[in-house]
Specification:
The chain is an alpha+beta fold. It has a single domain, classed as Nucleoside Triphosphate Pyrophosphohydrolase (Alpha-Beta Complex). It is about 25% helix and about 30% strand. It has five helices and eleven strands, in the order H-H-E-E-E-E-H-E-E-E-E-H-E-E-E-H. The protein has helices at about 5-10, 10-20, 90-100, 155-160, 190-210; strands at about 45-55, 60-65, 75-80, 80-85, 110-115, 120, 125-135, 145-155, 165-170, 175-185, 190. Strands 1, 2, 3, 4, 5, 6, 7 and 8 form an eight-stranded mixed sheet that branches. The protein has a three-stranded antiparallel sheet with strand order 9-10-11. Strand 6 and strand 7 form a beta hairpin. Helix 2 crosses helix 5. The radius of gyration is 16 Å and the shape is globular.
């Protein structure tokens, strides 16, 4: 399998190598451009976990559809995560929320790195994303008060033709702001979650082509 083909069908090894290029403490890289036209922070700080596992040689990410019982972002697809508690570190919050939302065993998570913090368009909450490797497909127990459905998708499926699209929106904070979408068979991933996926895929593809 050539470098470009590995980038299009990445396994956990390719994800691990890609995250190593930015490191957990210094997510920016002069060789890998950050997300474009990021919105300003203004809301309460939050953190999410981007859980990744390998199955049949392909890396999968775990996503959730938020419960209609929640006060914000109801029904949207997201990664496990939420607001930081007082004096809580972002990584601790991401792991705690993953346990509370989908029953993920935090002791099995190998933190591979931190993506650039970003914000939501509605609340402008500052979100710190952490990418964590799992030893295999995990047993999940979604909390119905927070999660309507938990599922996974292969990174290669996100890169398939016709899945990704981009729109340009005018917002109160920026004109012509890029908004990313991943059109899956049963869900649409957009907003901050789509931007995190875009960044992760960008890192994997760029590293796969140059590695």
């Amino acid at each position: 399998m050539g470098a470009d083909e590995r980038a299009r069908h990445p396994g956990l090894h390719e994800v691990r190598i890609a995250l190593a290029t930015i490191g957990p403490a210094q997510p920016s890289s002069a060789q890998i451009p950050p997300l474009k036209a990021e919105l300003p922070f203004g809301g309460p700080p939050a953190a999410v976990l981007v859980p990744v596992f390998e199955e049949d040689g392909e890396a999968h990410v775990i996503l959730t559809r938020r419960s209609d019982r929640l006060r914000s972002h109801t029904g949207e697809v997201s990664f496990p995560g939420g607001r930081l508690e007082p004096d809580e570190a972002p990584l601790a919050a991401a792991l705690r929320e993953a346990t509370e939302e989908v029953g993920l065993d935090a002791t099995t998570v190998e933190v591979l790195g931190q993506l650039e913090p970003l914000s939501t368009m509605s609340s402008r909450a500052g979100i710190t994303p952490f990418v964590g490797a799992l030893p295999g497909r995990p047993p999940l127990d979604p909390n119905p008060h927070e999660v309507a459905h938990a599922f996974d998708v292969a990174l290669s499926a996100l890169m398939a033709e016709g899945v990704y699209r981009e729109e340009r929106w005018d917002t109160p904070w920026a004109d012509d702001h890029p908004v990313y979408f991943f059109d899956l068979p049963e869900d649409i991933v957009w907003g901050a979650t789509a931007r995190m996926l875009y960044r992760l895929l960008e890192l994997v593809v760029l590293n796969g082509r140059t590695g």
